Amino acid sequence: MDAINRIRNLAKRKLMTIVLPEYEDKRTLEAARIVREEKIANPLVLTPDMIDKNQLDSYIQEYYQLYQSKDISLDIVKKLFSDNIYYAAMMTRHGKADGLVAGAIHTTADVARACIRCIGMDERFTIVSSCFIMDLPGNQYGDNGTFIFADCGIIPDPNARQLYCIALTSAELAGKVLDITPRIAFLSYSTKGSAKTKSAEKIAEALALLKAQSPGILADGELQADAAIVPEVAEIKCPDSPIHGKANVLIFPNLEAGNIGYKLSQRLSGCRAIGPLFLGLNKPASDLSRGCFAQDIVDSVAVSAIRAQ
User: Fold this and answer.
1) Computed over its alpha carbons, how large is the radius of gyration of the chain?
2) Comparing C-alpha atoms, which of 308, 303, 306, 295 is closest to residue 31?
């Protein structure tokens, strides 16, 4: 069974409520229909008539209290909540929904801002980042063609600690959603010091942090992409690597590389991309590409449901 079908079946184990605030988008409505019919989750399409005015006022006041120290005015907060993505994010914060999926008509920045400010960050981490589940059934690399790519959507130029957090949260998602043992590769244009760069030093520091904090996780770096995923190349370039060219979680050195990498994989190989999935929040939330299809939204709902279980 391919990863997409496994994800949808795992989501069905326990019906979770996932809020979809983009009620005016036809793809979202179609996705909600599929999710409901296949019993993947309980999709809550947040239409204007579902917004309770008293609850809205309460959310506005709570948000204002949270951020008034940042010189934000009540009028600005009211303007923010004219977009119901903020209401949906506050619903998720308070457990009225188990997760949130949006981005079909919102930018990543808009979705991320609402989720970070309303849902809040997991106190174990200092950052919110993102990843994609990439699936190419029948492919020999990764985990039978399945990978996690991170970060492809949030942090432009992560420092060593941020790379460590991205790797750790990606590994947690791989285990929970895909039920696979994560094998992490910190990617670079050099392998094990073949080029002396600041980037390589940053990756070495991130790897050291990961090994110190989570010694049971298989990880290595810095590695070129072929040394990370092709065992025959790994045997030549880094024969002592603990992942032996079988990485299934790929950590990119910066946002440019990650975003370019996932889009090339998706378009050139027909690889299925689920995400961006936000990492490091208190509750599950997922962004979407504005060029997404209804089935992409279904997949993101399924992942969010599993993470909420």
Assistant:
1) 20
2) 295
User: Quick one: tokens of 275?
Assistant: 């995400």
**Per-residue pLDDT at 195:** 66
Q: Which domains does the chain have, with CATH numbers?
A: 1-120+281-309 (3.40.50.10950), 123-277 (3.40.50.10750)
Strand partners for 42: 17
224 neighbors 193 (Cβ within 8 angstroms): no
Residue 17: enclosing H or E segment and its boundaries? strand 17-20
Around Cβ 22, how many Cβ atoms within 10 Å?
A: 24
Which pLDDT does position 100 carry in this prediction?
Answer: 98
Give pTM, 2 decimals.
0.92
- Burial class from Cβ neighbours inside 10 Å (0-12, 13-18, 19+) for residue 47 reads exposed
DSSP 8-state symbol, 50: G
CA-based nearest residue to 129, from 228, 222, 255: 255
